[in-house]
Amino acid sequence: xxxTRSLAAIAFIASIVITACGGSGTPTPVGTAAAGSTITxxxxxxxSEQASFQKVLDAFKTKSGVIANYESIxxxxxxxxxxxxxxxxxxxxxxxxxxxxxxxxxxxGSLKKVADLGIDVNALKSxxxxxxxxxxxxxxxxxxxxVKFNSKSTMWFRPDKFKTLGVSAPSDFAGFTKLLGDxxxxxxxxMGLGAADSWTLTDWFENIYAKQAGPxxxxxxxSGKLPWTDATxxxxxxxxxxxxxxxxxxGGITAxxxxxxxxxxxxxxxxxGQAVIYYEGGFVGGIATGQTNTALKVxxxxxxFDFPAVGSGKTVTIGGDVIAAFTNKPGVKEFLAYMTSAxxxxxxxxxxxxxxxxxxxxxxxxxxxxxxxxxAQVANASAVRFDGSDLLPSGGGDNLGAxxxxxxxxxxxxxxxxxxxxxxxxxxxx
Amino acid sequence: xxxxxxxxxxxxxxxxxxxxRTAARRGRGPExxxxxxxxxxxxxxGLLLLVFLVYPAIYTVLLSFNRxxxxxxxxxxxxxxxxxxxxxxxxxxxxxFPPSGALWNNLLWIVFYVxxxxxxxxxxxxxxxxxxxxxxVKAIVFIPMAIAATALAVIWKFVYSPDANIGFLNAILGAxxxxxxxxxxxxxxxxxxxxxxxxxxxxGFATVILSAAVKSIPAEVIESARVEGATxxxxxxxxxxxxxxxxxxxxxxxxxVNVIKLFDLIYVMTRGGPGxxxxxxxxxxxxxxFEAGQYGYGSAVAVVMLVLLVPIMIxxxxxxxxxxxx
Lengths: 430, 326
Known about the structure:
Number of helices of chain A: 19
Helix content of chain B: 55-70%
CATH architecture of chain B: Orthogonal Bundle
Strand content of chain B: under 5%
Radius of gyration of chain B: 23 Å
CATH class of chain B: Mainly Alpha
Order of helices and strands of chain B: HHHHHHHHHHHHHHH
Strand content of chain A: 5-15%
CATH topology of chain B: MetI-like fold
CATH class of the largest domain in chain A: Alpha Beta
Shape of chain B: globular
Number of helices of chain B: 15
Oligomer: heterodimer
Shape of chain A: globular
Number of domains of chain A: 2
């Protein structure tokens, strides 16, 4: 069984390589069956993210002769996508805004199964590290494929200020809270926090939960099998509150609740930033060096260390996007197949904007050290888990964010009521 | 908040009140009704109303009794959406004091926003009428009306920033040596901070309406009162106030309707947070229907909104009728 799979995988990769070679050798598009057709790809990326993705689409056009028109919907993406599905006018291929929506679209029959497009799902398995393909499955069937991601276990900091303060990156959470205390004791505000964007708090929680309670409990909790009343939930919130507390957050908790995510990056990385640590995913690097403060130098004034292990738990969390097909028009199969290839992964990774989940994308494809290390962190992790709030039924992430906003204010969270609401959401999804 | 359409109605109503009933006088008098022509003229508007108002309203009401995921009828569940809604502490929670939830927050808005907007509008209208640079004052007060609500929300998000180097208000507090306040991050303050933005955005509208009302009071009436020895205070409370009460009540109705429809400020500034502290009805509807995809549940919220608006609309229409008779 195993050998047939890997044989199929080799055949698949070989076919891609052959197509790839053909494409790169000649300026004219290679004649695939779908050449000359046009498909629509819809996503919520704009600006530099869109420009990066456009490079992938251009490379795809050269390879296959299929024109993939990009349609960017910046606001209310899920609403618009949903409306277009209901109206019988879905895009051919779309980035799905969260796994809750993926399940919803799949169960209502709006999505085409990857296998039904004529792509051998088994052959894909060897292309990805364990756990990645599963994110695109609904009830055991492959509907979507993860095409890019970022690590969410990156703790950003100011190396220059660490040096001045005489402190260094910790290895575990106890060391981390001690570090925060040390920085505070030296008269510096340790950490920026933008909790008005409540998803930053869910990212904190997920990191800690995956490490403290372990990846198995994490899977159960974010699939509705473990109730939120489980003691591990409150324990993870307590751990979280040992770092996110009045003394350690620049400006205090209440101020943080009125601050946006980007302003919080500024607290640490702007020219006049006061704080020295900021937690969020791998994408912070791009925002900080591109928008917040272009004078930042990677390794000198901006860098990251692994989100500290809790006890022995080192599970890495990631956030990413999956892509799925709504039609089987000519060109759709080719596009999805292309998106699973090292070719597309390398082009995309080369923009420095994303980490490719495709295993065979070489480290040399990443243009800078930050991205290279981010890819390595995930590749070498003992366990990788997908952003839990994205796995919850739609609206569940907002609820968790609101509960955590209450928790960091010191309010008691009624996890029993939370569980009732969440259970209702899981039930409503079925 | 989009007040323009109501504003138009209001002015029209107000003109008819102040004796400008020329249109009625110019009427052609009794004639045999020409039904065909009437229907022909009414048809386009009637059809549009049917397609874009009546049909969606009925659809929404039906959907509120259905699971309605994805906006289609899938399973009838009776009143389940409503029982779920009214047992949701984020919608209305009376078990704590003060109560909380979206419905309660809307009530806070009605009480504070409506009363303060009318109060300030009236003060500015009456006081500005007595100074030479009246038009300048009114222009300044009216400027926020020209700003789109979302832009206004973005501006105030900056003003309210907890960081003194971004937030104007906290920069002032900092200069005075006061610790910064997290206007939008403190659950006890956030609603009032938002209401203040709403007031800032609407006082101009109230001023313009009430100023026109105050001006339409015939000068002879006020003058004769003065001759009779009435004090300025008596003139204000016994004459001006009763004489502008109708435009004032119409204004109040417009503002209440605005509050129940309130969405944009919340969407841009807090998204109902922190926690659910600044949640309002219209935003709940949006989140449930369009973000969580629970159209049935969201429709139930919409129906509650509609039910809240109906008595206000009835009151409004009655006022219009009586005003055209007097």
